[in-house]
Amino acid sequence: MAKVTWEQYRSLHHIVSEEEFDIAEAIAENEVQRVIGIIRWGQITEETYGYSQLQECICNVIDKMADDAKSVKGQGLASVSNDGYSESYVIQTAEQLREELRGSICAWLSGTGLVGAY
């Protein structure tokens, strides 16, 4: 059963449409579960300390993943040079994006005890 409903997400977040929500929510839960750990994840109930923070974290993961997909992060040019003018862009791999997301999840769940010592 999903930890976040469309109504909860829609109340404060507006990036993902209702048609995309179920899939986005399931993917976001999987990402959060990877950080928390499968055993701890299975023990979480609505009475768990920090449950509302967990729900907000899942909503933030949905938004972050949607933003990353829209901005096409991880793709593009590494550098551009034209007659003395140069510009460089950071290219992120899928691993780097996942590590960035992991850090964000740990920050969002900080103080709940759900991600260990964070």
TrEMBL record:
Top-rank taxon of the source lineage equals: Bacteria
Q: Which organism is it from?
A: Roseburia lenta
Q: Kindly provide the name given to this protein in its UniProt entry.
A: Phage protein
